[in-house]
Amino acid sequence: ENAKTITVGTGDLSVVTTTALANLFNAVNRLELSNILIVISDLKATYQSGTRLLQSSFSNLEGEVSRFALNVEPVGSSSDEIYDILRTKLFIQLPVKDEINEIALAYKSKAEEAKNLGFTNYSSDKLYTGIKESYPFHPSIRELYERFRENQNFQQTRDLIRLMRKIVISMWSSGTSDKRYLINAFDIDLNEASLNTTISQIKPSLVNAISKDIANESRATAEVVDNQFKIEFISQAAKLLLVASLADVPNALLGLAPHEMVGYLVEPDKDITNFRTAFEEFLSQAWYIHSDKDGRLHFQNVRNLIAELNSLVDGYDEESARLEIRKFLEERFKPSVNDCYQKVQVFPPIDQIRLEPDKILLILSEPNILSPGLNRELVKLYEDAQYKNRIMFLTGDRNTMDNLIRRAKEYKAIQRIISNMKSERVPENNPQFEMAVDREIKIGQQFLSSARETFVKLYYPFNYRGEDKLVDAEFLMDFRGNDFNGEDQIKKVLSEKQKFTTESPSGNSFKEKCLERLFTLDEMRREDLKNRAASSPVWQWHHPKAIDELIDYCLRTGAWFQAGNYIQKHPPKEETSVNIQATWPDKNSSEAVLKIIPKFGDEVHYEFDQVPTAASDKITDFNSWKTNEMVVWFLCIDSKGELPTGKPVKWVNKIGLRYNPYDAGDQKKMRLEASVAEAKILYTTDGTDPKDNGALYAGDFIIPKQTRYVLAIAEKKGIRSDQIEVSINWNKPEGLKIDRTKPLSYHKKGMFKTNNNKQTYEELALFSKHNATFAEVFINSNFSFEEKEHWISVTYDSLLILTKEKIEEQIDFMRSSLTTDGDFETSLQIGAVHFPSGQEFEDWMAEKQMLLNSLKQEEIIQ
């Protein structure tokens, strides 16, 4: 280009130069110039216009030159040439092929071993072939060095030769060569200034990563982990990742997947069985390692999650760590079933510990490293406590708190990092977010592991050879992943030591223990028993309601007896008595049918209106004894004389009162009738109480004009009927009338009946739809059992009000307890159906398609 600016004759110097070059190219082909070599360098990128001039001047010469020219290309770093050059320049002599093959086979074997351990899927055959081709260099050099050959200012062949020369010199100088079979990509002593500078110049941005994570006179993360595990391959792995991260051009491949890295690491005589554990520890401390979306690990000049984590950890003080420990342990020991213990406190001050008689307290205290056993202040707390059987302590005897505090800080930090990511709406599939979640799980596991090492002793109250004291048991936190249930673990230990029991309170064993250890007096109050259980270590722990359930069960079954506030474990001899079950088949009659059930005796004597004696008449029909009397006294006697005679039992008949208002010309009259003969009927028409102001009924009477209600009551021998209230409507003729606002009872003549399961459930459902309840209920069932037909009948007291649900529960109970094949047919007889209002009764009638005139006045009571 410069020659073009210089004028020569009618042309310029470039024309003269191109002509001279053309003559030179022609002349060099002659025999006389056979010792002449012309080198033509490809400088198109630098001298574009000059090249065009040359080509335009002798383009026809290109073909002629190509006939004699030999293309000389740069050495490819991925080809075998570079190894040939390195072997020639660096080594005087190499082993024979058989020795190389033996080394390659040894590497292949180690690669297969690592593959079987699940550490790598790197091809052992590929490694074997690669070693044979590149010996004494590991194939990783070709694969990893190729990545940064395009870096600016890196001369592919020359700089690679310089780098390898320094590595080889370093290995032979340090004695590393005596331990190696091959020169690997990780054989870079970054603690040597010259090599450190060379690598740093390839990618200057990784200087901090090298010093912090890879090599820094035994202070870098990888070196610390190596020293911790007594290995060297973590530093080697870190250097492999460094070499794989040196590319500094756009879209370059960075990093290695863990399985690739292990494939490059394996070598004879190297034990990598603990690689995964050690490498995880390295990743948990390295500041500059990052992961891409494909899981490749590489170094960057940006601090990673671990660096942020450590920065936060350094900012937390010990008190905040203790608060995190409290929160962490309280969550994992918080009782959910609440049967073994009901409260938990972590590191509480002594003056904040409060014992309650109905709650067992678990205290987690810091290990006592000054003296063996439990902290003396806690022992004194126990000795001075009233409720000695309401506390236990989980602690240890090793100084592991520093490690636990460190883990607590890490756990608090990682949770804050994740919280910040969520607030910044970082996607959950973001590699950093995924790494944070993974780190949270691992830190949680480490936190639990530290807690496991710290809390190894469980102290609980126990009566040992007659002495109440705290005894200890080994406590082992069993957990899978981050899944740990402290309550289950506590129960497991205490169950093994027979301090905690799940025995049923209704079982004989639990009762006998209570009699032996708690119920030692003839009678005690319920609260006294529970207080003794709270204060006596001889008593086992159980569900908090177990003592109440035991007491209720024993009272219910008659094993114990309630006398006021006291419970007696030796109940007094029972006195004789009588149970009376009465029915009135005819509702218009006072004749009752009594079922008489003697208690603790075998003879029943009776009298009307007075107390019977042993000389009174005896009952002969205990199942269907009939009477019209209003008052009957019964006396039960034990003819054997073993049990004392109890008090006489008084039975009182009931009086029914029916009414019938009717029209008599322009007047209205009222008819009243009692179900008991010679009963006195009192009534009023002015709304006053008939018991005080009632007129004596002598027959049908005229209802005075303007009367709104007739009130009436029947009485005989001091026994009264229920008061009736009859509404009088002067604007309508008399007849069956229903007040829609008042409650109504339907007493169907002959009882309301169903015939089978279908009718029973359908009628109950319809009644329930209108909020009806039932009285005078009879449940009759037929069923087959062991190929025989059987029946059962259940009769309820006429005063007992039942709901649809109660009746169905009774039917279901009988079905489940008496048969298993489902062949159980049930019918009902119901004497009275109660509706909350007349309106709901009318709604029920409408659904049944019944007419009001189909009913009789005596069937409706309002």
Any descriptors?
7 domains; 27 helices; alpha+beta; 6-stranded antiparallel sheet
Question: Considering DSSP H and I runs of 4 or more, what fraction of the residues is helical?
Answer: 25-40%
Quote the beta fraction. Answer: 15-25%
As a whole number of angstroms, the C-alpha radius of gyration is: 52 Å
User: Gap between N and C termini, in Å?
Assistant: 127 Å
Layout: helices, strands, pairs:
Elements: E1 7-8, E2 11-12, H1 13-28, H2 48-57, H3 61-68, H4 80-90, H5 97-116, H6 124-134, H7 139-145, H8 156-174, H9 193-202, H10 207-214, H11 221-229, H12 233-243, H13 258-265, H14 275-283, E3 289-291, E4 297-299, H15 305-315, H16 318-333, E5 343-346, E6 361-364, H17 376-384, E7 391-395, H18 401-423, H19 431-454, E8 457-464, E9 467-474, H20 486-496, H21 508-517, E10 523-525, H22 526-535, H23 546-557, E11 561-563, E12 566-568, E13 577-583, E14 592-599, E15 603-608, E16 617-618, E17 625-627, E18 631-637, E19 649-652, E20 657-664, E21 667-674, E22 680-684, H24 690-693, E23 695-696, E24 701-702, E25 709-716, E26 719-720, E27 724-727, E28 744-746, E29 752-753, H25 757-769, E30 773-785, E31 788-795, H26 804-818, E32 824-835, H27 838-848, E33 860-861
Parallel strand pairs: 5-6, 6-7
Antiparallel strand pairs: 1-2, 3-4, 7-8, 8-9, 10-12, 11-12, 13-14, 14-17, 15-16, 15-18, 18-19, 20-21, 21-24, 22-23, 22-25, 25-26, 25-27, 28-32, 28-33, 29-32, 30-31, 30-32
Helix pairs in contact: 4-8, 5-6, 11-12, 11-14, 12-13, 15-18, 16-18, 18-19
